[in-house]
Amino acid sequence: MDRMQEIKDWYVSQFESFELGLNGEKQKPIHKFRKTAAARIPELSFPTTGDEEWKYTDISPVLNHKFRSGRFSATPVSLEQIDKFLFNHAEFNTLVFVNGNFDPALSNIIDSTDKLIVKSLKLAFSENQESVENYIGKNATNTDGIFPELNASFLQDGAFILIRKNAVLERPVHILYVTSANEEIAIQPRNLFILEDNAQASLIENYESVSDSVYLTNAVSEVHLGKNANLTHVRIQNENLKSYHISLSEAALGTNSVYTYYNIDFGSSIARNNFHARFVGEDAECNLNGLYLTSDGQLMDNHTLIDHALPNCRSNELYKGVLDGKSRGVFNGKVMVRRDAQKTNAFQANKNILLSDQAIVDTKPQLEIFADDVKCSHGATIGQLDEEALFYLRSRGLSLEQAKSTMIFAFAKNVVEKIKHQQVLDYLEENLHLKLGTSV
Q1: 156 compared with 24, residue with greater pLDDT
Q2: What is the CA radius of gyration of the chain?
Q3: Which of 93, 144, 203, 365 has CA atoms 20 to 30 A from the CA of 334?
Q4: DSSP 3-state assignment of 118?
Q5: Which residues contact 39 (CB under 8 A, 6 or more apart)?
Q6: H-helix or E-strand spanning residue 353
């Protein structure tokens, strides 16, 4: 039996054990969702470098571990341990999950009304069953491979945000996933974000570690935007360098909606982020901003797909990478313009700086255009720090290291500086300096 089949069989057997520990929850709607996904696992396979979409990302290190469900992991976390990850409770709705499990004692939900619903997904399965069942799994399906199905099969919990028609969520939502495990566990967060017509919100989805154990985060986020809805979504991955992180974010954009997405990666040994946006209404706009910083031994892979299926829609995509040591970055971005999507305006760019002769970037921006009245462009750059600019900064009194740090920080900061929440910006800038080894 090959290793991949062995691991797949392991997860099938783990699901049986997982069910035994659920007790009365087996009768709830959430478990029906799990069982439907689990039934599909035997039909699916783990990706290999022989698959075109995974040709640069070898996940065999992930499959060398038999991760157990984090649902029953009870490693406690104190407020003091996570304080450095939190923003001001008075200004943010805060949902904290420890090892994938919602922790109400560490959370603080300020805005929760009939029109502004912010809660854990597990609770929403009971209290907002119709809304959950109308949307969950409609974007992220088994066409995205085995990892979304594993996520659904072992679904622990996640964030549920429902902003009703014409409502505005004034305070952003901070969703903090903290892993504190002394064993090899798999965290399977599931997030469902629904903004009805004319609704507005912003959220920060954040993944952190307070231990140095080996573990897997396999996360899925689904976004549904109604007519004229507006969502800003910041996703930060800063897990420990022994962990593995695989994610899928799927967004459906309704007529005249605006979705602005930031994906920032600092951590994990191997990180693979899949992002798919689909226009389901005309005159919508999707803005993607990505930043990945890698150091020795890390691999970060970003795969994006923007599906222009309808006319008069706009997409803007900018991903930047800073790579050091013997690390690797992958960017594969596809913009598809379908036959009926006339008047599409799409821009895509990937820019990378290599700080080491051993760092590698594989970049592949793509356009697939089947309409004739469009404006589309794409490009990619890979380079080192500009010697003339370094010379200029040194001539102004900076040391070589100070000059390098200044240039790198300016290059990276450009991606995140448009984030409106100052506390989030300060947090990102602090971690940029930590990652780059520069002073704040």
Answers
A1: 156
A2: 21
A3: 203
A4: strand
A5: none
A6: strand 345-354
Q: Over 80: is that where the pLDDT of 23 sits?
A: no
61-74 mean pLDDT: 83
Please determine, for residue 73, whether its predicted confidence score (pLDDT) is greater than 80.
Answer: no
Taking the C-alpha atoms of residue 222 and residue 226, their distance in angstroms, rounded to an integer, is: 13
The alpha helices in 297-399, defined as continuous H runs, are: 387-395
The answer to whether the beta carbons of residues 221 and 148 sit under 8 Å apart is no
Residue 402: enclosing H or E segment and its boundaries? helix 400-416
User: Taking the mean position of all CA atoms in its chain, how far away is CA 129?
Assistant: 25
CA distances from 262 to 48, 294, 343, 344, 374 (A): 28, 17, 25, 22, 25
CA dihedral 177, 238, 347, 379 (to 10 degrees): -150
| Sign (positive or negative) of CA dihedral 188, 302, 332, 231 | positive
Over residues 295-316, the pLDDT tens digits come to 989 999 999 999 999 999 999 9
Which helix (H) or strand (E) segment holds residue 203: the answer is strand 200-209
Residue with tokens 């209404």: 281
Distance in angstroms (rounded) separating the CA atoms of residues 313 and 385: 36
pLDDT in the model for residue 254: 97
188: its two tokens: 């399977």
Q: What DSSP element (H or E) covers 38?
A: helix 29-38
Residue 144 confidence (pLDDT)? 65
Note the pTM of the prediction, 2 decimals. 0.95
Residue whose structure tokens are 């491979």: 145
What is the spatial distance between Cα 32 and Cα 418, in angstroms, rounded to a whole number? 41
Measured distance CA(90)–CA(87) in Å, rounded: 9
Q: What is the dihedral of CA 228, 92, 286, 318, to 10 degrees?
A: 160
For the chain, the residue count is 440
